[in-house]
Amino acid sequence: MAFHFQRRRLHYYHRFRFLLPLISAISGALLILFALLLVLAPSPSPLDVNHLHQPRHQHSSSSFNVGVDDDAIGVPVFRVPSRGGRSDRDIWTSRNSNFYYGCSNATHKFPNVDEITPPNRYLAIATSGGLNQQRTGITDAVVAARILNASLVVPKLDQKSFWKDASNFSEIFDVDWFIYFLSKDVKIIKQLPRRGKGGKTWTPSTMRVPRKCSERCYQNRVLPVLLKRHAVQLNKFDYRLANKLSTDLQKLRCRVNYHALKFTEPIQNMAKKLVHRMRMRSKHYIALHLRYEPDMLAFSGCYYGGGDKERKELGAIRRRWKTLHINNPDKPRRHGRCPLTPEEVGLMLRALGYGSDVHIYVASGEVYGGEETLAPLKALFPNFYSKDTIATKEELEPFYSFSSRMAALDFIVCDESDVFVTNNNGNMAKILAGRRRYFGHKPTIRPNAKKLYRLFLSKENMTWGAFASSVRTYQRGFMGEPNEVRPGRGSFHENPHTCICEDSQAKVKRDVGPRKYGKGINETRRDEVESDAQNVEDDPEWPDTDEDEDQSGPLDNDMFNRTGVDYDAVSSEEPELEEMLSD
Fold it and tell me: Distance between CA atoms of 97 and 92, rounded to whole angstroms?
């Protein structure tokens, strides 16, 4: 019995001895394979923001909460990287910008003001809206005075609108520089003079002109009154000049907007401090103009998926205006007419190549949802600043009570940024887009909201790589590149094509230079054509302007009161609403 047991044990021992090398070889191979997978597998560097509360108004679940079990059932994982990733362009500059420059000098056909301005012909204007809407009115007022060969009285700023700023022209803009710089184009005076020696001051006849009033419109409607009364004041002067004018008048527009209108020294000095502090933190910075105030969202009629809470809160705001009607809350989002949420802006920027180390200056008012709404954007870009975080209360104290002066600080910091981004299509966004084109085509990103909206809705069903690739494709034509928009398309303040010239010598040098890997001019031109084609298709905010309307007849009530805003989901007869939305 003991003998058989010993034989059986020896038998199992020999079998195990032969299997041991095989087991060791398999185990070693598995360990090597596992090690190779660890080395070669790319690290997604996911952004861990699971601890953040998500905004109550998001239209979908959090972009960052990705379940571990998704891979097991074959669902694409949407995981946002902290790095910007690869990009086929320099994210801080515009391609071919060195081949274009701003040009606004008058031609030899534009006579000096002394040759065309008769005595006793005065034009006064009263602007409306916030700082940037008033800026367009001031610019167009100078051109209107030139059309009428009249002396312009320094414009009156709107002190009674939604923005409630009591500042006058000289408290925001350098009035002496304004008068001096334009002295060869238009005679500008600080106030209406007296009639002769010791006479009474001229009393202007007040009137309004229709939107997009052409040269002929001013000559037919305003000039006869001016010749008779000698002084005319045009009220609610916003968007009262046609987009399409003669070359010299368009260049005059540019001289006013980009050279004559300078902020006062206190505003400039404080803004320089803010810019310097951003530069001390980082070589480059992005400026984001974020319009996401409760009033503005309520007015726009846009719905962000916040359920009954959002409908109740924004609905209560809408009831303050009896004439505000919501036609279809889903329509403006589908058509790209709603501001992007802070989270959507952050995802767009990350997809365009801007990593979590990028510094962002945010110019905004009260944000709907407060910190809860801003949390995803701050998680994506922790280096998040505003004038309130980089300046002391004592430094900002002289500006706090004046909304236009506070807006002027943001305007300068945004203008000086390496990249300007907007989530909306308001006046500040438009004016800065045109200004940055004029001064070297600095990158200016405005969302292709119509395409991006559909992409944001379906992002949970795709990988980050697919999402980022689609964002880059959709944003072609929306990045502030030269020749991105057809001449004459959109507002002239946004697209000052007449005042942008091509450096032909620099282009000739490029054309005759060596081509890199067989690509050169044709490749660049193809990009420009594709960008323009996409822009025409996708951008509902840039209609072709100055429709052929009869502006030679008498003024009627409809022409007096016509208004136009970017958001067509609502209809309203409340002027305060438009002023609130304008900047």
Answer: 12
| Residue 422 CB contacts under 8 Å (≥ 6 apart), including other chains | 288, 289, 291, 428, 429, 432, 433, 445, 446, 447
Instruction: Determine the Cα–Cα distance for residues 37 and 41; give it in Å rounded to an integer.
Output: 6
Which DSSP letter does residue 77 get?
P
Here the tokens at position 247 are 């070359």
Instruction: Kindly give the interhelix angle for 403-416 and 265-281, rounded to the nearest 10 degrees.
Output: 40
The token pair that represents 291 in the structure block: 């319009």
CA distances for 119 relative to 150, 189, 205, 227, 230, angstroms: 8, 12, 17, 11, 9
In angstroms, the CA 442 to CA 438 distance is 9
> Rounded to an integer, what distance in angstroms lies between the CA atom of residue 559 and that of residue 71?
61
The neighbour count for residue 136, using CB atoms within 10 Å, is: 25
Q: For a pLDDT cut of 90, what percent of the chain falls above it? A: 56
Q: 484 in helix, strand or coil?
A: coil
CA angle 521, 87, 540 (to 5 degrees): 75
As beta bridge partners, residue 288 has 362, 421
- Average the pLDDT over each of 198-207, 405-414, 420-429, 540-549 and give the range with the smallest value: 540-549
- For residue 396 the two structure tokens come to 């900002």
Tokens linked to 368:
């709907």
Amino acid 39 reads: V
DSSP state of 460: G
- How many helices and strands, by DSSP H and E, does the chain display? 24, 14
| pLDDT tens string 388-437 | 999 999 999 999 999 999 999 999 999 999 999 999 988 999 999 999 99
**Residue 69: pLDDT band with limits 50, 70, 90:** very low
Q: In this structure, are residues 182 and 254 in contact, taking their beta carbons and an 8 Å threshold?
A: no
What token pair was written down for 336?
Answer: 């790209």
d(CA 345, CA 290): 9
Helices 464-474 & 342-351, crossing angle to 10 degrees?
90
Torsion of CA 126, 130, 133, 135, to 10 degrees: 70
Q: How far apart are CA 187 and CA 189, in angstroms?
A: 7
Which tops the pLDDT comparison, 148 or 48? Answer: 148
CB-based burial label for 115 (10 Å; 0-12, 13-18, 19+): exposed
Which backbone phi and psi does 378 adopt, to 5 degrees?
A: -70, -30
Tens-place pLDDT, residues 344-354: 999 999 999 99
Report residue 51's pLDDT band, with 50, 70 and 90 as the boundaries: very low
CB 220 within 8 A of CB 248: no
Q: Given the DSSP bridges, would you call strands 100-102 and 500-502 parallel, antiparallel or unpaired?
A: antiparallel
Task: Give the C-alpha distances (Å, rounded to integers) separating 138 from 1, 147, 249, 260, 518.
Answer: 115, 14, 14, 11, 49
pLDDT digits (tens, 9 = 90+) for 290-318: 999 988 888 888 888 888 888 888 888 88
* The two three-digit tokens of residue 128, written as one number: 């409306």
Residue 149 makes CB contacts below 8 A (sequence gap 6+) with 116, 117, 118, 121
Higher pLDDT, 244 or 329: 244
Beta strand pairing status for 444-445 and 419-422? parallel
Hey, how many other C-beta atoms are within 10 angstroms of the C-beta on 60? Answer: 13
* Distance (Å, whole) CA 163 – CA 404: 8
pLDDT of residue 580: 55
